[in-house]
Amino acid sequence: MKYVLITGGVVSGLGKGVTASSIGVVLQACGLRVTSIKIDPYLNTDAGTMSPFEHGEVFVLDDGGEVDLDLGNYERFLDVTLTKDNNVTTGKIYQSVLDKERKGDYLGKTVQVVPHITDAIKDRIEAVALIPVDGKEGPADVCVIELGGTVGDIESMPFIEALRQLSFSVGKDNFCLIHVSLIPVLGVVGEQKTKPTQHSVRELRALGLTPHLLACRSAQPLLDNTKIKLSQFCHVEAANILNIHDVPNIWHIPLLLRNQNAHHSILKQLNLLSIATPPDLEAWTRRAETFDNLTDSVRIAMVGKYVGLTDSYLSVVKALLHACIACSLKPSIDWIAASDLEDDTAQSAPEAYAAAWKSLRNAECVLVPGGFGDRGVSGMILAAKYARENNVPYLGICLGMQISVIEYARSVLGLEKANSNEFDDETPDPVVIFMPEGSRTHMGSTMRLGSRRTLFQTPDCVTSKLYCNPHYVDERHRHRYEVNPDVIGVLEEAGLKFVGKDETGKRMEVLELPSHPFYIGVQFHPEFKSRPGKPSALFLGLILAARGKLEAYLTRHQNGS
Q1: Which of 252, 398, 407, 461 is catalytic?
Q2: Which residues does the UniProt record annotate as the domain CTP synthase N-terminal (predicted)?
Q3: Of 147, 166, 199, 327, which sits 20 to 30 A from 119 (CA to CA)?
Q4: Does residue 211 lie within any of the structural domains?
């Protein structure tokens, strides 16, 4: 197994995840099979209980793993299906070592960070690297490892030491280290400063790791004298200093790396030049250029709880982008804090209230994504009601589906106190209830998680036509509450159709309103499986409906064209 390690220096948030994904893309384009590992030095076992405000979205994998959003980048860029083991955390490592210590596996030895924790890290990396993720038999050719955080952080020290040992044990032909660093420009002089990167590399070398390549983040392309300086003081060949400057969209990054011959430097270091082919990035080039040249945009109202941090909905934003590009449109997302639509805000912050309603009324379609807790729920219900009554295309995901059920029960069935048990334990009309596939007391890994099959109840529904499958679809889930099976009958009599159910028929997966141009709610999260060039069917449907092109698209596809 060949390893490519990506570390980061100077500051966090430099785009190590996108860099790691892009390096994977370029190596894939050279005909190699690639897998990925993300190391997160935090003590949480996984990302499942973290606030989206603090850590961005929680990405869900097929096997139910709740992981860092960088694994979403890997899946989208590399078109692979990762496992929960591809996200290594300090919590997982320490838990495994402590479990072994309690079982007596260390035979009375003093259990220490070195060698026991570092050995556990090495063993975990080597085992996970062998898991096939691209649907083919056998292990990949190259494993790209991203070490979260910044070199010098106390929490990542055991990982750095383990990776130093790994680089030594696998041999220099099987290990390539790429250090991502920042080249700031200070003041009016506009000089590119190399000192932060010099210090970062010096720290890395003091810990026993010497970078083979430097990936320098900067606003503008690096000047030649900056490269010479970096090469001289960081002990890295000038040809191996890559510049990842700001680009119009992240699909340019693999092309940027290819244009600087990054693949050649990496393949040379890993002794793979003889088996690799020249990189074929035609599809990526087309995609990046198409995106750059789009002029017509579609206005999408995103009504959610965590709109202050767009990373909270990263996969939803990417799925909208994939769908828009397939329709030759640019997404123009109006972020609406759900609470700003509520009547209380009209009194407390009239300007925010007016702006939120103006954005909603100007939108061509409405999307209510997932979330937890009762903040902003009233605003989401108002958004769903607005979309339903005004024939505006609506897609509700997870909580967004439950919102549409609560709104329909209140507005159409006249059940004014209809609610979810999540928001009101005492509601006389619980239309959304806790469905026990998990525990009420433990928050981590207690939800209905991972890929589950949804069976379509009728091949005529819009959702099955969009998925081009009259029978079923497999999508990823992450929720504790579901539509109450006892109210399905009355809701369907009133016109709301539950066209997708799980294999038991008790869990409602997809709802549609046949009298509406596009009003769909899904209990699963279709955004997690959207890919560039292969948009999620429901997001594509939403954008087509926003432009009045859905009927023509469905007719064309039914005729097999």
Answers
A1: 398
A2: 2-272
A3: 199
A4: yes
Q: Mean pLDDT of residues grouped by 10 in the chain (561 residues)?
A: 94 88 97 96 89 85 93 95 96 96 91 95 97 94 95 93 96 96 84 92 94 93 91 92 91 95 96 94 92 94 85 93 94 94 93 96 96 88 97 97 96 94 92 73 66 94 94 94 94 96 94 96 97 95 96 82 46
Residue 416 and residue 340 share a domain: yes
Q: How far is CA 551 from the centre of its chain?
A: 30
In a shared domain, residues 248 and 391:
no
3-state secondary structure of 6: strand
The residue out of 266, 288, 310 marking a domain boundary is 288
Model pLDDT, residue 355: 96
Asked whether the beta carbons of 385 and 494 are under 8 A apart, the reply is no
User: Residue 79's domain spans which residues?
Assistant: 2-181+194-288
Residue among 345, 429, 430, 331 nearest 382 (CA): 345
CB-facing half-sphere around the CA of 254: CA atoms within 13 A: 26
Q: What is the pLDDT of residue 561?
A: 46
Which of 212, 263, 477, 525 is labelled catalytic?
525
Contact partners, residue 338, CB within 8 Å, separation at least 6: 303, 304, 305, 368, 375, 376, 377, 378, 379, 380, 383
Peptide bond into 369 cis (omega under 30): no
CATH of the domain at 8: 3.40.50.300
In the 8-state DSSP scheme, what is residue 109? P
Same structural domain for residues 375 and 394? yes
Do residues 306 and 261 both lie within one domain?
no
pLDDT of residue 441: 54
527 is catalytic: yes
Q: What is the per-residue pLDDT for 54?
A: 79
Indicate the residue among 225, 253, 288 that finishes a domain.
288
**Alpha-carbon span 530 to 467, nearest angstrom:** 12
The CATH number assigned to the domain holding 505 equals: 3.40.50.880
Q: Considering 66, 342, 422, 527, which one is annotated as catalytic?
A: 527
398 is a catalytic site residue: yes
- The reply to whether 20 and 89 lie within a common domain is yes
